[in-house]
Design brief:
Blueprint (H helix, E strand, L loop, with lengths): L1 H11 L4 H5 L1 H12 L15 H5 L6 E7 L10 H14 E2 L4 E8 L7 E5 L1 E6 L2 E6 H7 L10 E6 L6 E2 L11 E2 H12 L6 E5 L2 E4 L1 E5 L5 E9 H4 L1 E3 L7 E2 L1 H11 L5 E2 L2 H14 L4 H8 L6 E3 L8 E2 L18 H4 L17 H8 L9 H10 L2 E2 L13 E3 L14 E3 L28 H6 L9 E3 L7
Parallel strand pairs: 1-3, 3-7, 6-13, 8-9
Antiparallel strand pairs: 2-19, 4-7, 5-6, 5-21, 10-11, 12-13, 13-16, 14-15, 14-17, 17-18, 20-22
Helix pairs in contact: 5-7
Length: 464
């Protein structure tokens, strides 16, 4: 009865001149539209919240599809793409459209989807720090148009294992396509790390360089994404440490800007030797932290526990390690969306109903907190999440912003990007400069953290 009353309330609020003029049409409208005797544009799907369909917020995403596999349902899934964009638009206050280029093609790899955000960077504190254009467009009114902001590749080889909404019931081996798209869009908003260059027993951040025809490497700078500025590690026997000083130290060891190396192997070996000579082990420590549970976190600005990141893969797993929430912490919580291994056999709505997520529609409180920390404005408040016994707590404080907008440049991401191009494509950029104070307001919104915050485990167990 409550469900019927709810439907009546939602549906009768839909204005229609016919219901006012003709009692017979009024009865027909109520029976067939409001009480689910028929389908209609305002009907709420089973398991979905009313805001999924009846949202009053504009959808701030424009999707463009390049279809290289006409047999794939992903080529004609615009309703699903738009719904994912609407969910984000219901969670975040976005003032400028985000342009998404989706390429559907059969890939030999096992991934479902892969995402590459367009970026710009600034150059201060001895680091090139990259920001997704999807973010900068929101915080800097008048930011010049960049074309595509987010590039997503959908691997249609996984179609047999993919549930496309509107194709019946999800099967036990299938993963929900809506969840996949919503997940990938979060990476496009900036949820990604540059710590992925694996060299033996060392993990390096990515870096900018030029390479001549003889393979000679000219070093420019190690770099961070805005995500990495809030990345912390929890070394054994020491307190929490930000990774930004690691990148600064590595830049000093590898530089100065313009220093040349005979080849890529010579470069990595040289930086490793420099660490050994100075009694440091930044890159070895980072690989250790990235492959031990609960050793890396994102330090959100809401005063809650640090957000545990995925560090259980050993060996290190490119594309999964660090750039996701810890799956053993979040897989059955309202922040299930950003774990690296989606649970099959359940739709996004099934998981929202099972794990709670109202009103985020799949975007949980820790995810909203992470996005707000990077600079997005929340439409849905980032209410304190339920504390997990596996998470790590800290006392946060603020420090002075190290940011500057000097030397902020475009980074070019061409259409037709492939997985094999993903690393090298970040080397392509040109020198469009922005005014020095152009995004000052953005930096003022981000809280800073003291390097010497006290860290403790949230449970009775200690981390070893």
């Amino acid at each position: 009865m409550e469900d019927i009353i709810s439907r009546l309330y939602q549906c009768i609020s839909i204005p229609t001149i016919y219901t006012l003029l003709n009692p017979i049409l009024t009865t027909f409208f109520i029976l067939f539209y409001c009480l689910n005797w028929g389908d209609h544009p305002g009907k709420v799907p089973n398991g979905a919240t009313p805001s999924t369909v009846l949202s009053q917020n504009p959808n701030m995403f424009d999707f463009h599809i390049t279809c290289n596999d006409n047999a794939s349902p992903a080529c004609s899934a615009m309703d699903t793409y738009n719904r994912a964009g609407q969910i984000i638009s219901d969670n975040l206050i976005l003032n400028t459209k985000i342009i998404v280029e989706i390429t559907v093609e059969r890939r030999p790899e096992t991934f479902w989807g892969a995402t590459y955000p367009a970026k710009v960077f600034n150059n201060l504190d001895d680091i090139r720090r990259y920001f997704p254009t999807a973010l900068i467009k929101q915080v800097q009114p008048g930011f010049p148009p960049t074309g595509t902001d987010i590039f997503i590749t959908i691997n249609s080889s996984r179609d047999p294992d993919t549930y496309y909404p509107g194709t019946g019931q999800i099967q036990a081996n299938q993963h929900d396509f809506l969840e996949l798209v919503l997940h990938e869009l979060q990476h496009g908003l900036g949820f990604e790390t540059v710590w992925y260059q694996l060299q033996g027993n060392d993990l390096f951040p990515d870096f900018d360089y030029t390479l001549d025809n003889n393979g000679v490497v000219t070093f420019q700078s190690f770099k961070e994404n805005i995500f990495d500025y809030f990345l912390v590690v929890h070394p054994i026997g020491r307190g929490v440490e930000r990774t930004t000083p690691y990148v600064q130290a590595l830049n000093t060891m590898a530089g100065p800007f313009g220093k040349t190396y005979n080849n890529m192997g010579d470069f990595y070996n040289g930086v490793i030797q420099q660490q050994q000579q100075q009694g440091k082990s930044y890159t070895k420590s980072m690989l250790s932290m990235a492959t031990l549970p609960y050793r890396m976190s994102f330090m959100a600005n809401d005063g809650n526990d640090p957000i545990a990141l995925e560090t259980t893969y050993n060996p290190f797993k490119l594309g999964s390690s660090i750039s996701h929430f810890a799956k053993d912490v979040y897989s059955t919580t309202s922040d299930f969306l950003l774990i690296s291994e989606s649970q099959a056999g359940k739709t996004l709505e099934d998981k929202v109903a099972a794990y709670g997520n109202d009103p985020g529609e799949g975007m949980g409180p820790d995810l909203r907190s992470l996005l707000a920390t990077m600079g997005y404005e929340l439409r849905i408040p980032g209410s304190p999440p339920v504390k997990s016994s596996n998470k790590i707590t800290t006392n946060n404080s603020t420090d002075k912003s190290p940011y500057s907008t000097k030397e902020l440049r475009w980074e070019i991401w061409p259409r037709g990007i492939t997985i094999s191009d993903a690393i090298e494509i970040e080397k392509l950029w040109c020198g469009l400069l922005f005014q020095e104070d152009s995004i000052t307001d953005y930096y003022s919104k981000i809280k800073r953290y003291n390097d010497n915050v006290n860290l403790r485990k949230a449970s009775r167990k200690r981390i070893y």
